[in-house]
Amino acid sequence: MNETSKAGSPCHGLASSFEQENDRLSLADGSRVGVVGGGPAGSFFAYFLFSTAESAGLDISVDIYEPRFFTHRGPAGCNYCGGVVSESLVQLLATEGINLPTSVVQRGIESYVLHTDVGDVRIETPLQEKRIAAVYRCNGPKDSGPVDVAGFDRHLLDLAASRGAKVVRKLVSGFGWQDGKPQIRTTDGTAATYDLVAVAAGVNSRALELLRGPAPQYQPPGTLRTFVCEFHLGREKVSKCLGDSMHVFLLDIPRLEFAALIPKGEFSTLCLLGEDVDEELVESFLATPEVKSCFPDSAIPKPVCHCFPRVNVRSAVRPFADRMVWVGDSGASRLYKDGIGSAYRTAKAAARTAVFEGISAADFEKHFWPECRTLIIDNKIAKLIFGLTALIQKLRFLRRGVLRMTAREQLDAGRNRHMSNVLWDVFTGSAPYREILLRTFHPLFPLRLGWNLVAGNLLRAEHKIIVESKR
Amino acid sequence: MNAAILGRTYANGEMIVREGETGDCMFAIQKGRLEVLRTAKDGEVRLAVMEEGDIFGEMAIFEREVRSATVRALGEARVLTIDRKTFLRRVQEDPSLAFNLLRMMSRRIRRLSLEIAELKPGSPRTQDSLSLTDTERQGERRRTPERRQRAERRRAAYRRTSGPAAARAS
Lengths: 471, 170
Hints:
The complex is a heterodimer.
Chain A: H1 3-6, H2 13-20, E1 32-36, H3 40-56, E2 61-65, E3 84-85, H4 87-95, E4 105-109, E5 111-116, E6 119-124, E7 132-135, H5 152-163, E8 166-168, E9 172-178, E10 181-186, E11 191-193, E12 196-199, H6 207-210, E13 222-225, E14 227-232, H7 235-241, E15 245-249, E16 256-264, E17 267-274, H8 279-286, H9 289-292, E18 305-307, E19 310-314, E20 320-321, E21 324-326, H10 339-357, H11 361-367, H12 369-394, H13 396-411, H14 418-428, H15 433-439, H16 444-458, E22 465-466
Helix pairs in contact in A: 3-5, 3-10, 12-13, 13-16, 14-15
Chain B: E1 8-10, E2 15-17, E3 25-40, E4 43-50, E5 55-56, H1 59-62, E6 70-83, H2 84-93, H3 99-119, H4 134-142, H5 145-162, H6 164-169
Antiparallel strand pairs in B: 1-6, 2-6, 3-4, 3-5, 3-6
């Protein structure tokens, strides 16, 4: 593998210096990299692998195994996800030079509306700018007519292909090793050997199970069943009922942790997170007046597409081995939020490690694993935050206080928006959970919350706080 | 109005940043063109025109200085704001995030260097790379005879070792 680079041109000096350090496993000119899965994690990995390899003067090739074209509507081209690109990720991608075109963005989100049984409140971004993107992972919902949609996954895959990645339209059927190198086998009976394989298959993919044999130390992530469905409302009604806001619900329904309604072009996407979400939970949620009020004439239409996908709630164990790395959901992800952002972070960390450090398990443990560990530690704090959110869901007097405090902050432009900022970041997933928790340690936060708890529960005239009704 | 957009839309002539103002963010152009203007003696001078994909205002991220120029929309334009906090928080964890910015700033420095070279009298300075510019000549006049002699000796030594004559000799 290193022979080519040793005789390489002077412009490959930096790459050569990495390879000549010792006999460690590393990428060199002519190295082949296989990526299993062409979702955001796989595409980001390939994109950043090419970028960093170019900086290091490395000439490599990348094959992305993705049988789907992402041009189909419904499950055939879908990655089963709410499809929200967080505020922080939109900004980071723009810094990287990746801007999302209008054909990909189904709706720019500029605010959140929090719905509870004691009232609604609209939380606006301080800049009043659309920095959250509602996207489709595929080409629109099943049973929908042809719509003018360009999927987010397709956009990223095209971006990786434009950097030089080759998309292999084959279904992966197995893995193995040949001469110490990982081998990917496909359903048509062919096999290809690589210097490095990155697994970017989602938690709903069968590919993760296929890998348990060749990489016994790897244990797939823990998952939870969720619910995602699409309602066809038409562009006008989506604008009238939901506007440019994402609607989140804090309702006292057993087993329900989080629910959001996201406007997207002609449709709206409903996402439910909770303990083993089933049809009974979905029905009890849809039957609440708070949810019905978000639909035209308070009538909930029949969904055009629905699924019960699983999400990553516990990181994988040892998502790396010699010449192998697991990125995105198959490795580590933020709890409940910003899965695409986690894919970006882990994929980029893996690409950096592979180019600049090496491709052995020790290299990934030293340079890639810390990125995963940061997410894991943050998820522990997230559990505490979601525990507090569950308490607010259960206790009505708490809901009144939180809602009143948020509403007051939104009315007064000059006021420090302690609660609004906390809720904004919890809903959007824009800031690390650690930072969100630290914000609640501000001395004014408990004081103001205490006062609003008293005022919100004693002044019952304000029981139903409706700050804004521009829906 | 198209709802499937990101950023904020600015009308023709609308100002995105104003020279002299403090800032804590940078911007990425999502669509349209923007002009960069700077106040001079005779009024505003257009320094550059930026297009889709360009990033500007990055100096406010790295140094706590006021905006060095005004940026205005040339026709309708859409611009995304990138917070200093979001950028700096992430760049601590992933320094390579700054690569794209560094590449862009490097291109700007290269372009500015070319423009400065073109503005210098007598450019291009191909005849003798050690010939003096106007500023250097003024400096020479201010030097004492002794300092001038020392400078001349240094210049001659440089010519012998690495100047055009040395290059010809080698």
